[in-house]
Amino acid sequence: MFADLTPFISTSSKRPWKSQDPVAGSLERLGAVLSALLVAALLPSMAFAQSQPVLEEVVITSQKKQESLLDAAIDVSVFSGEDLEKYAVTDMSGVALVTPGLTFQNTGVWAQIYLRGVGTRVSQAGLDTGVAVYVDDRYVGRQSGVMFGMTDVNRIEVLKGPQGVLFGRNSTGGAIRVISNPVSDQLEGDITVGAGDYSYRHARGTINVPITDNFAIRASAQQRKRDGFKENIIEGGYDYDDLDQFLARIRARWDVTENVSIEVGHMFAALQDLSNMGAVSADSGIARGIAFGGITTTDRFKIASSSTGPDLNPEGPKHHMHSSSLRLDASFSAFDVTAYVTDASNNERRWGDYDGNSFNDIDVIMTENQSEETSAGIEISSNGTGPLSWIVGMNYFDQEVNYDFDLRIGAIGGGNVPASTGWGTYWLDTYGVFASVDYELSDAWTISVGGRYTKEEKDIYWRPSSTEYAQNERITLAAALLPNEDGEEWSSFDPKVTLTYSFANGGIAYATYSTGFKSGGYNAPTRRGGEALDPEELDMIEFGYKADLTNSLRLTSSVFFYDYTGLQVTRAAKGTGTVTTENAADSSVKGIDFDLTWAATDNLTVRFGGEFLDAEYEDYETGGRVANTILTGDPTAVGYGLEFFNAEGHPLLRAADMSFFIAGNYEFGPVSMNLNYSWTDEYYFDFVLNPASGSLIQPSHGILNGRLTYAISDDLSVSLWGKNMTDEIYLNDSVMAATNQRINYAHPRTWGADISYRF
After folding, report:
1. Exposed/middle/buried for 201, CB within 10 Å: 0-12, 13-18, 19+?
2. Under a CB-based contact definition with an 8 Å cutoff, are residues 176 and 155 in contact?
3. Long-range CB contacts (within 8 A, 24+) of 57-63
4. Structural domains in the chain (count)
5. Distance linking the first and last C-alpha atoms of the chain
6. Contact at 8 Å (CB) between 423 and 136?
7. What residues form DSSP beta bridges with 658?
8. What CATH number does the domain containing 742 carry?
9. Poorest-confidence range of 362-376, 384-398, 424-438, 624-638?
10. In this predicted model, what pLDDT tens digit does every residue of 378-391 receive, in sequence order?
11. Domain span at residue 685?
12. Backbone angles phi and psi of 52, in degrees to 5
């Protein structure tokens, strides 16, 4: 079956999509980076041979309590705000570069987050991600809500594996926690301005002002702008790829008494970003639309698009978000109480050229989602020092999404026939109760037992658009296309048991069994009618070891085994439309994860993390073929139709066999320098077999970032930075629609400079 494939794909019976030599070029570059780091390590060690550096303790709250990273029986990667600045991480895509096993793609304002091959590509109403994102413990219900960049961040915690007991819904793959700097009782602040190539400019600032002895306000803001990387070669075509992003947040904390505090906050964000919507055709100039005079290109820095989306949406692409929060923390003699309520609204609108050519063979004229989210919860935890500690809580989340979706396909004239077009409303109500108990059996042994009961209800109403309801009153469909409505309810109890052994000289070893649950959903609005998806469930066993091997060498590591039932997978549709999400029967994931930090000298610190993954579908029939309605003469022709292979025994989509991250930070006097390199093995975007499907492979690639900072004084510094400094060519995304394929190239090499002032 696989012998007829292109040179992009090998004939391996185990992994038909693997390229012949996926790692040679990247490993060669890695060798150069490692050599440089080794030299950097040896030189200062020769000069400061008597130095005995000591690593600082890392404190986390991944288990709803403050504890040392080395005492936490959980697989978590932690990056401080200082780390993020050194590594040139400015948004969630940068977090993926420094976290092995985590991948991040985006098309416009919609994020696609995968952790160990678990996630989702579609962010439309009715479907949920498998990796939960929290901003200051506020659950981000829409994937677009993570696209606004980051400022005033204290740390980021990436929790790997199911996190349902403490963090609730849609965390089968894991959870990402963005934790801001707290409101303090000190007058402090900072401001940074910068510029770079492609007319990049940004400014951000934070100020914390104590108003009284027990009341303080903290405010932060950020503005980022950049011209596009790609030129539209079609006269009058829209200039995709530019960035215009604004984020502002204000928080106030009132210490009512010594043991009671109240914090309120509000965030506003605006984003106009089509940075990855400028696609090119993967059909090498002979896509279906080309047969009727369309123009395409495969050039990395060019697109060919004459989409009518901009004409019908004069306001342009946009995403506005408001979020308000209220939090109460109280401490009593035997327990602590935390209660919170949040309210958020999102308004997202965009369009896209889905075929990568000027003919508008497949054209998304408009996608709009307007959502309202409310969450509330209460947590009560022990604060004593005895052998028993515990936490109990309950939380609630509801969401309403109104959406309008207009995808068109076309023969003669291109992109004028409505397909997968409709509007509707999606409602979600979910609540959960949970408890977790830790008991010290002896000085060495601790057992933890917890569980969560979750109940979720989803209701959906959708129908084909008409002139009465459609945006811009531009669509008229037959009256025979009647509305559809459906609703479903799911519930689950998910336990977690952990046994931990604490070594006398420090460090722990642990074993964990837990389950995960993600509710079913709907392929709406792109699918009219049909059954709801089944829930996604898994069992996990994890073994971990953490310790300071020496005062200057720290290791965290884990071995994990997942057994999935009903894994939800987004793939090219077998029928009309672009993509669909379905249950992939049974799947398994196993692997090894480690993070090693070494204070080589007082001046040099090296961090090295990696993940080895074996993730495969155990029973998943993906076969099928879609006939092209235009090119009917040759069933083997590019663009004629889609053929899928049986995925049984083959790796999960977007699950690289190996990935690693290495960073070296060197400080000498007022100068600090950081070089970091992330490498990811190749992985596959979809299951399609045809002559163009080689571009459905994300090639193995390595990304080198760097930052050089000179401290003019204690308060003032200047920095030079570079991203993708070797100008590695790789893909941000590749999508196979019903009759064609488009790809988006990831960002090229970029440079810039910052100046920062802190007080």
Report:
1. middle
2. no
3. 60/155, 60/157, 61/157, 61/177, 61/179, 62/157, 62/159, 62/177, 63/166, 63/436
4. 1
5. 66
6. no
7. 612
8. 2.40.170.20
9. 624-638
10. 999 999 888 999 99
11. 2-758
12. -125, 80
